[in-house]
Structure formats: C-alpha cells, structure tokens
UniProtKB/TrEMBL annotation:
InterPro entries: Pyr-dep_his/arg-deCO2ase, Pyr-dep_his/arg-deCO2ase_sand, Pyruvoyl-dep_arg_deCO2ase. It catalyses: L-arginine + H(+) = agmatine + CO2. Its EC number is 4.1.1.19. Keywords: Decarboxylase, Lyase, Pyruvate. Its cofactor is pyruvate. One of its GO terms (molecular function) is arginine decarboxylase activity. Belongs to the pyruvoyl-dependent arginine decarboxylase family. Pfam families: PvlArgDC. It comes from Sporotomaculum syntrophicum. This is Pyruvoyl-dependent arginine decarboxylase AaxB. HAMAP family: PvlArgDC. It is an enzyme of class 4 (lyase). GO terms for biological process: L-arginine catabolic process. The keyword Transferase does not apply.
Length: 152
C-alpha cells in the first residue's frame, strides 16, 4: 500500500515526436515528469497536501498522478490539455483534467466549469483553484499533456 502523498505540483507541456508514444514521452520530459513512473489516479487531492512547484521527484519513483493528454498526427491541428485543482477551506481537494482538439482557453474554461460542478456535487465550498494548461499546433506528431503529480 502506498502512503498518502503530502506534496504536489501542476504541469502542462507539449512536444513533437516521430510517433504518438515518443511525442507523449517528450511532453512528459518537457513537463518535468518524464523520468518517473506515473500511476494514474482519479480526482482527489489528499487533505493538507502542500503545493510545491519546485518538487523534485527521484527518477524511477512510482508517482500517483492525475493527467490528461492528447496526441495528433494531423499537421496544423490545434490540440490542448489542462489540469486543475480545486481547494476547499479545510479538507481534501478535487482534481480535474481534460484534453481535446481545441484551444488553451477552451480547456481552461472546461476545467473551471468541471471544478465548480465537482464541488457543488460534493456540497463543498470552492475556495480557490490552480490551473495549468497548454496548447500545441501539430507539426508532424504532437502531444499536449497536463498533470498533477503527487509525492511524499
């Protein structure tokens, strides 16, 4: 069993590659999470988790991460990804992620809406939110990625 993460950060990055997998890997590297093992998690930020934008995670670590991404091999296509964390006053937070064939502004608006809805659904008051987003115009094979890695 993994311990409950105590720290987190948000990242959003885009990159090109020769294939969708290498574009994804290059986006991970650009987002400073390319040398860790992502464990995909859903939408809850643990209570009292501390935002640490300078968090350094050792290579090879198993890292609970909420993330969204999109890859495309259509030159000229606009792709975007975003992730957001909604904060309550004194309990857990909620994470939402999205990606699509659209602009950065569109994914940011979608994240804001999803966070508001998630807090309403839980009967909680949304005190604040942090959002990271990126858009990318595909050259050959591109990837847009947004993530919230959580660590100990």
């Amino acid at each position: 069993m993994l311990p409950t993460p105590k720290k987190f950060f948000l990242t959003a990055a885009a990159a090109e590659g020769h294939s969708e997998l290498t574009a994804f890997d290059n986006a991970l590297l650009a987002g400073k999470i390319g040398n860790i093992n992502l464990l995909k998690v859903s939408s809850i930020l643990p209570p009292a988790a501390e935002y640490d934008p300078d968090l350094v995670i050792p290579p090879g670590s198993l890292v609970p991460t909420a993330y969204g991404y999109i890859c495309s091999d259509v030159p000229g296509e606009l792709i975007a990804a975003a992730v957001g964390v909604g904060f309550s006053e004194d309990t857990f937070g909620v994470i939402m992620e999205t990606a699509g064939r659209c602009s950065r502004d569109e994914v940011v608006a979608k994240i804001e809406s999803m966070l508001r809805e998630a807090f309403i659904s839980r009967g909680m008051e949304l005190k604040d939110m942090k959002i990271a987003a990126v858009e990318h115009r595909v050259e050959k094979v591109g990837c847009a990625l947004a993530a919230v890695p959580m660590y100990y």
